[in-house]
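>> received
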Amino acid sequence: MRRGIKPPPIELAYAEERLPAAWRSAIRAILRAALKAADPQQALWRNLRREGDALCLQGSTARWPLHGPGEIYVVALGKAALPMAAALHRQIGDVIRHTLVITKQAEMPLPGAEVLIGDHPLPGEQSLRAGQRLRQFLQSLREQDLLIVLLSGGGSALATLPPAVSGAPLSLEDLRALNQALLSCGADIREINILRRHLDPLKGGGWLRLTPAATLTLALSDVPGNAPEAIASGPTAPDPTTLADAWGVIERYGLRTRLPPSLLQALTEAPETVKPGELPLDPKTGQPRHIYRILGENRLAAQAARRAAQRHGFHARLLTTALQGEASQAGRFLAAILKQIAESDEPLPRPACLIAGGETTVTVHGNGRGGRNQELALAAALDLDGVPGVALMALATDGQDGPTEAAGALVTGDTLRRAAALGLEARRFLENQDSYTFFSALGDSILLSKGRTNVNDLIFLFGF
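>> returned
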């Protein structure tokens, strides 16, 4: 941490009164420890340092002169783009020639930076304008320049360039149709990104074809497994998947009849993405010209939460950071673990804290409002009805669970009883996928400051 510079406070709100009074302060500390570990400012400072007239990457021999023959430029893309760019400016702002930020909302000022707002979760006109400006920016750089890329989740939608079909660009409506189909068909984030990379020249290593500059990419991972090609659809990472893999996703989810014919034609005409063997070395130093480093990810946040839980008297264990599958099914599975803790003190004795991370999916069939974490929590609540001394908290670390204002939700064995007293039938809300309305009415939503970070979802299982 730089002396005198502190990250903004973590704004976290939830219904603490639903939890046992003796454990409220401990649980608050556990959640804050997880979010602090994913703070982009501290993560950047742990990995990047200024030594004299050079910029150095921790644990690497890579060094870049701060006053060399080229200039230093910055592009920050994603939900956490502004705090990441602000942290870098505090380090080397005096030598940065220009910073382009593309994010979801301008939640904090960054003097001297060019800030563009894109659309999310579906690309829109703002995303298209951001993509066009980004292409222009990348093409303006020179071979001797250094481009520092700050990536976080959400970048796939925030900046986009439609591919061309027989020389004419696809319409924005076609791209929206693609993203809508992918987000509602049950495909996981890995499969979604395979198609995105092959249908957008800004993805799948596309920036490396657009700019001659050397690149240093510093990323917050929001995808299970932390594959660089999946984070923001891998704009500066080689892509190990192929066009054949993209067609495989279309066939697997029956998307041929759900996608516009022009989009299918675009995939037929699309070039392959950048492959690992295409990345060049610097002819003078023999070092890679394109370096990629993951600054923060789900496992680091989960491990920090586990350590905090142990300090505060819980028997704590990290269950997984690769949780995937349908959110409702994951909720029922996690509820089964909590029931076993309540009944037999297994797999952990009480007081227990089990932590899971990852990213589930939701196959849309209802017309309500919600997100994967709230749907997971509501499904768990149905199976936890009447179980004493348990709580489940599920939240998106970026502060937004689906197209709602909530990050997630808190449930206990008493949730359904309280809901029934208000005339709320939980199962009907789950069937209509209206978890946001359900938890808002109960006052059991989790609210978290948006745009601070983005390292997937975290689920906490407590047994008291």
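>> The chain has 16 helices and 18 strands.
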